[in-house]
Design goal:
- This protein is an alpha+beta fold and 233 residues long.
- The protein is built from five helices and twelve strands.
- The chain is globular, with a radius of gyration of 16 Å.
């Protein structure tokens, strides 16, 4: 899997459905508060159904590459703990093997919400375009995927696929891993049956002192500042 991630820039792996359900419970609580939040404003806390801890999220600005999209950034350790079970040993090995860095792990996380039934405008972009290849990764899990919602379009690096566009659909129990330098976008769609919600982890090496600042810049205003004094935290 690590070889495929290194060569093509993207792989899909299985994740624990219980970890996905735990996140879904928190998403349901958050979206009851608001499906159209203000940037930089904390949401009312949600409760982790497994531990009873209060999980804090903060809204970022609307994502400039895709209409009707906003981020809810994990804003305390309890919120980050919701995502960490998605980083299984298989995921860790794939990223660490592709990068040649055994310290790669998730350092921040977000919920990405499309709060309308369509995405007509979606620009090609790289999550961390200023980073070198094989140093930073995004890991995306579908949490609420209504019928008719689009998946992820991307341009693989593989020599046999170069220049061609491929797509992967978000599915229950699947995690999409891709390099921060991979060109991709939300697959446009016209009519979905509800709100689309993804869970995302930002993964990079423990000694990468620039990565947290880069993630903060790419993820927009309102990005959580907690724990950023220590890149390894």
């Amino acid at each position: 899997i690590g070889e495929e991630l290194h060569g093509a820039g993207l792989v899909v792996v299985d994740v624990d459905p219980n970890a996905v359900q735990r996140l879904r419970c928190v998403v349901a609580q958050l979206l009851r508060h608001s499906s159209n939040p203000k940037p930089g404003v904390p949401f009312p806390e949600a409760v982790d159904p497994e531990t009873g801890e209060f999980c804090s999220f903060r809204c970022a600005t609307m994502f400039p590459n895709t209409e009707n999209m906003f981020y809810l950034n994990a804003d305390n350790e309890a919120a980050m703990d919701l995502f960490r079970p998605l980083f299984t040993s298989e995921v860790a090995c794939a990223m660490q093997d592709a990068a040649g860095d055994p310290s790669i792990s998730p350092h921040s996380a977000q919920l990405i919400v499309v709060n309308e039934h369509q995405v007509r405008v979606s620009s090609w972009h790289q999550d961390y375009g200023s980073a070198r290849r094989h140093t930073m990764y995004s890991a995306i899990c579908g949490l609420a995927i209504p019928e008719g919602a689009g998946g992820l379009e991307y341009r693989p690096w593989s020599a046999t696929q170069e220049g061609g566009v491929q797509s992967v659909q978000y599915a229950a129990g699947k995690l999409v891993l891709f390099d921060g330098n991979l060109d991709h976008r939300t697959q446009p769609y016209k009519s979905a049956g509800g709100v689309r919600v993804l869970g995302v982890m930002d993964c990079y090496g423990a000694q990468d002192s620039c990565a947290a600042e880069m993630v903060a810049s790419e993820r927009g205003n309102g990005f959580s500042l907690f724990g950023r004094d220590d890149p390894a935290s």
